[in-house]
Amino acid sequence: MKAPPLEFHKPDTVEAAIAVLADSGGSARILAGGQSLVPMLNLRVAYAKTLVDIGAIRELAAIEDAGGYIRLGAGVSHARIEDGEADGHCSGMLRHVARNIAYRAVRNRGTVGGSLAHADPAADWPVAMIALGADVEVSGSNGNRKLSVEEFMVDVFTTALQEDEILTGICVPKASPDLLWSFQKMRKKSGAFGEAIAAVVHDPESGFCRVVAGSSAIGGPHRLAVLETALQEGAVDDGAIQDALTQTIGSLGRYEMQIHTVCLRRAIEEVRT
Ligand SMILES: Cc1cc2nc3c(=O)[nH]c(=O)nc-3n(C[C@H](O)[C@H](O)[C@H](O)COP(=O)(O)OP(=O)(O)OC[C@H]3O[C@@H](n4cnc5c(N)ncnc54)[C@H](O)[C@@H]3O)c2cc1C
């Protein structure tokens, strides 16, 4: 099955892309790597009259050292991060996350911004970026705004983006060289989405500590604040992890509870050793 006929735009500036979105009255969609949007259009589970391909907008492809943080343009592919273009920041966590997304063919086209904007509850970047305390930059007809990835990810397949807004960049704070991190992903086979994901980031120098879990079963990324405190105070056992999951997410089936507990335990143990 193929998508219905579409109007196609390929602007070379963010402003021109916003103008098309604003004129469309909500019927236009941004096309980034197309790894989620195109199959969804073909299967008719997503709808658009107009596609706005952002692949020619150079500023969206930039990776910049911006003082206190590294700024990834929303159009940066997973493959570029896997290949080390954002290396030297977050002690290799970005590279590790990118390398474990899907297959190389998907990583060549799929973008970090597309992953966040799509808000698939099973996606890796939302979990990783919340754990790293990253912010997103958004531009629209009413100007620019910056918000945390946590605020940006509103719900399953839902973000804080307005119809005429584009996610332009992701700002990842620079950590100390002693940053401790772990990113665990449980999946049935290589290349598949995770059935459970856990990320723990602890910077002993600044005291920054985040524990985040994600998956379709738990409806996307969730910060487990109770575990962040417990992790800094002492030992965290499976009982504490399960209590934190129930408190934050609600009751889970036995299998879901087990895989999320194991994933979180492994992540916590890795940053503690
Ligand atoms: C076989 C397969 C396996 C996969 N496995 C994984 C996995 O293990 N882990 C994982 O995390 N992901 C996985 N993915 C998803 C993939 O990694 C992409 O990140 C994801 O498809 C979205 O990125 P994209 O650039 O292709 O966005 P697109 O498909 O082009 O767009 C997705 C959505 O985001 C919107 N959008 C895109 N960019 C912007 C922007 N800058 N501003 C506003 N809106 C925007 C689009 O309008 C659309 O609604 C997999 C995909 C496939 C096909």
Explain what the structure shows:
With about 270 residues, the protein is of the alpha+beta class. The protein has three domains: about 5-55, 2-Layer Sandwich (Uridine Diphospho-n-acetylenolpyruvylglucosamine Reductase, domain 2), CATH 3.30.43.10; about 60-175, Uridine Diphospho-n-acetylenolpyruvylglucosamine Reductase, domain 3; about 180-270, Enolase-like, domain 1, CATH 3.30.390. About 35% of the residues lie in helices and about 25% in strands. It has eleven helices and 14 strands. The chain has helices at about 15-25, 35-40, 80, 95-100, 105-110, 110-120, 125-130, 150, 225-235, 240-250, 255-270; strands at about 5-10, 30, 50-55, 65, 70-75, 135-140, 145-150, 155, 160, 165-175, 180-185, 195-205, 210-215, 220-225. The strands form four sheets. A five-stranded antiparallel sheet has the order 4-5-10-6-7. Strands 11-12-13-14 form a four-stranded antiparallel sheet, with helices on both faces. The mean pLDDT is about 95. Flavin-adenine dinucleotide binds near residues 54 and 78. Flavin-adenine dinucleotide binds near residues 36, 54, 115 and 193.
